[in-house]
Amino acid sequence: MMKKHICILLAAACILFLFTGCQNKEEEISVSSLSSETNQETEENKELIFAGNKITEINPLLDTCEGLSDLIFSGLLKHSKDGSPVADLAESYAFDEETLTYTFQLKEGIMWHDGELFTADDVVFTYNLLTQDRNLDSDLECNYTDIESVKPAGPYTVEIKFKKYNASMLNYFTIGILPVHLLEGDNMNTTAFNQAPVGTGRYRFVSWDNSSGEIRLERNEYYYDKVPEIETVIYRMANNDQEKAEMLKNKEADLASIGPVTSEQLKDSSLYEHLECQSAEYCFISFSYLSDFWENNADSMTVLNYAADKGAIVKNILKNSGSAAFSPIQYHSFGGNKKADIYSYDLDTFAKKMEKLGWKKSDDGFYVRNGQKFTIRIQVLSSEDTQVDIANMISLQLKNAGIDMQVVLVDEISQDSETDGFLTTFAVPFEPDELYRKFTSKGSSNITGYSNSRIDTLLNAGRHEKDTQKRKQIYQNFETAYAKNPGEIPIAYMNANYAAVNGLKGIDTDRMFSGHACDIMWNIENWTIVK
C-alpha cells in the first residue's frame, strides 16, 4: 500500500544537552521522583530531546497529542512497518463471521506504568467509553459505531460483537487502551490524567513542566516487548519552526519536526542530518456551510478550485517537498483515481464560470453579487508556519482573481460563525475508512456541516464491503463524486521533514507518515544516540 521513500542522511556534528530539573510544584506534574545522582556519560548517550508542536493533553481517545500517546499507550493491535495491523496487547485474535464477534486473547503479566496489572477490564472500559460515553468529545467516535457490545470472557479474554460486518475495524483496534482503575467515573475531556498519563507502552510519563513546556518520559523497564535503548525522551514544545531551529542551533534539541522552509535553511548545514519522508498529510481549505456567506453562496464554492495555483505553492512554499492534491486519499492504494483530477489553475475558466453564476467585478477588482462582496474569512493555526504561508499565498492568488480571502490566525480551529472555513490538514495513511468520520453528514470530525447523500452512501458501503476489489472501486467512485462537489479546495500533500543530530541511529522512515510530529518515533525502540 505504501509508497517507499528513501531519506538522505547528511553528516552532522554532535550536540550535548543536560536536562536539569528543580521545578516548582505548581509548574510540574510528576508521577515519580528523579534521582539526583545521574551518571553524565550514561545520560549523554541515553537521552533524546525532541522539539515538537505545543500540546495540552495526552490521551489516545482525544487524538490531540501529535502522536506522543503512541509512546505511552498500547492498543490491542499496532501498525506494522507497512501499515498493516499486528498483535500488540493481544496475544492473538479470531473473528467469527456467523456471530460477527472478534475474540481477543490478551498477553498476561503486562503491567501499567504504576505497577497495576493490565486485564480485560481495561479493554472493556476503553471501548465502552468510545461507544457509550455521550460526554466524550472525540473525533474518533464514528470509528466504533458498529460495535454492539464489549465484554470480558475471563481476565485475559475480550469479546467484541458487531451489529454488522465492518471491514475497517482491525485498523481501529490499534487505539490505546486506558486504565480503568485510574479513570473509572472521570470525565475524559477534563480529567487530570490527560496531563499525567499512565499507559502500558514503551515509555512512561514522568513529568510535565508547564513553565518550560517540557514533557519528560522514561523507558518502561517492564515493557512486554523490546525495551528501548534510549532511556529518556524529553518532548520540548515550540511555538513555531524558527523556535525549533534555534533549539537545534543552541544544542537544546536532538531531533525536530520542521516545515520545508526551515528544512531548506538547515539542509546545507554540516551540523544536522536532514530527513524528508513521504506523508499522507493532505492540506486543504474546508468551507463551512454554517457561515452566513456560504448559506447564501454555496453554489460558488467549487469554482474557487480554478483560481488556486497549487503548483506555485508546491514550488515556493513546500520547496517541492510534496505534490499538488486532488483527493484526500490520493496516496492510498484504494485512491488516486485520475478521473477525480478535474480542476486546473485556469483564470479564464474561473472568470467565465463566475460570470455564469452572476458575479461581476466592482471598481476595486473584487466580485460582487446581489450587493454582496465575495469576501471569506479563513481560520489557520498560528503555530503552523507552513500552513500560514500556504494560506497567505492562496489569499494572494484569490485576490488576483477577484476574491477577498482574509486569513484569520487562531490557536485552535473551531466552529466559528464569524468565519467561513479553515485551512488545515488531514491524513489517511492506512485505512480509507478514515474518510467516514470527516466526510459523512454526521461524521464525528465533520465540523463544517458538509452533507452529500451520494458521499454518505459510498462511504457507508466502503466500510461494510468484504470484497477488496469492490471496496477499492467504491473509494475510487468516492473520489470522482467528491470532486464534483468538494466543499473545499484540495491544495497539496506535504512531506514530513525533520532535522537530527549526528549520532542518532536506527530511524526508519521507509513508511507512510500521517502528519503527526512523533510519526518518526514509530520504531524508537530500535534507536540509539551518542552525543
Automatic annotation (TrEMBL):
Give every Solute-binding protein family domain span. 85-441
Which Pfam families does the record match to this protein?
A: SBP_bac_5 (PF00496)
Coiled-coil segments:
none
Reading the lineage from the top rank, the first entry is: Bacteria
What keywords is this UniProt entry annotated with?
Signal, Transport
The entry assigns this protein to a family as follows: Belongs to the bacterial solute-binding protein 5 family.
| Protein known as | ABC transporter substrate-binding protein
Report the source organism.
Answer: Brotonthovivens ammoniilytica
